[in-house]
Amino acid sequence: MNMLQLDADVIERLNAKAQWVWEETLRIHRRSQETRVASSLSTIEIFVTLYYGGFMRFDPDNPIWEGRDRCIISKGHGSLCMYPILADLGYFPKQELERVCQAGSFLGGIPDPVIPGYETVNGSLGHGAGVGAAMALGLKCKGKDRMVYVVTGDGELHEGSNWEAFMFAAQHRLDKLVVLVDNNHISMLGPTDEIVSHRNLVRKFDAFGWSAREVVDGHSVVAIANALLDCQRDTSGKPKAIIVNTRKGNGVPGLENAPLSHVAAIKPDLIDQLLGERR
Fold first, then answer.
1. How far is Cα 185 from Cα 106, in angstroms, rounded to an integer?
2. Alpha carbon distances (Å) from 181 to 106, 143, 169
3. In angstroms, rounded to a whole number, what is the distance separating the alpha carbons of residues 11 and 6?
4. Which CATH class is domain 8-278?
5. 69 in Cβ contact with 148 (< 8 Å)
6. Residues 6+ apart with CB under 8 A from 279
């Protein structure tokens, strides 16, 4: 794929894709209420920018192509929005979106590598950073100029295994590793600041030997793209971190930024109303 040029046509296309993914995510959740929708609505612009913005090299016809960049979705429960993206890109037929969580479907509430386009098991949190660091080291040792992106949640960073991985990555100067933190400020049991506050994640990553930057509006594809472009221009030799400030349950009244939105379902009538208003 070609590198993103931030002209008006590209921005319009990315915004249109983000809107379409938002709508498709709600449609999937309407059919399968057991899916974790709030966490998936905060990551949409991150995945749209990565996959449609030219930052990822991939081949839907050969998901395990050796020349691909890797995207480790550590926050598996927050990637329901990836289903329409992967279907749209041709990893599997779009008809499969009608069968999420149904018997015989490979699209479950929590994804795993049986889904074309997913690299790792994504159930237990706190392991994506370690897996991504190991992949980045392996590619570096082989002389492969490939990127490894890890998408994690801020609540997930309460797991100590992440910080071991961050130290490891800095030690080995894994400069092709980029961690994007979906910083929606809410974990399963409430606001992260009231459980274990991260305070300033940019300063923490910097202290661990990373090159970190912040996206103030994590629902702006332009802001995310600019942060990714900044990572590409970064010649420090350090691994990169992007703290993406988002809203859990983005765009859904009563769900957005609600303290216990993590496992909440959206009533079908509200989904129908929201989709009708946005058509």
1. 31
2. 27, 27, 16
3. 6
4. alpha beta
5. yes
6. none
**DSSP state string for 74-143:** S-GGG-TTHHHHHHHHTSS-GGGGGGTTSTT-S--SS--TTSTT--S--SSTT-HHHHHHHHHHHHHHTT
- The encoded tokens of residue 59 equal 């081949």
Tens digit of pLDDT for each residue in 34-53?
A: 898 999 999 999 999 999 99
**Structural domain boundaries of the chain?**
8-278
For residues 151 and 118, the answer to whether their CB atoms sit within 8 Å is: no
Report pTM: 0.94
Question: Tokens 């590209």 — which residue?
Answer: 10
Question: Residue 174: helix, strand or coil by DSSP?
Answer: coil
Spatial contact of 129 and 208, defined as CB atoms under 8 Å apart: no
Which residues touch 29 (CB under 8 Å, ≥6 apart)?
A: 35, 37, 80, 265, 266, 271
Which tokens belong to 85?
């993206």
Residue 205 CB: number of other CB atoms within 10 A? Answer: 24
Report the C-alpha gap between 80 and 111 in whole angstroms: 8
Rounded Cα distance, 155 and 50, in Å: 22
Q: What is the pLDDT of residues 254-265, one digit of tens each?
A: 999 988 888 889
The fraction of the chain above a pLDDT of 90, given in percent, is 82
SS3 state at 4: coil
What span, in angstroms and rounded, lies between the C-alpha atoms of 229 and 68? Answer: 19
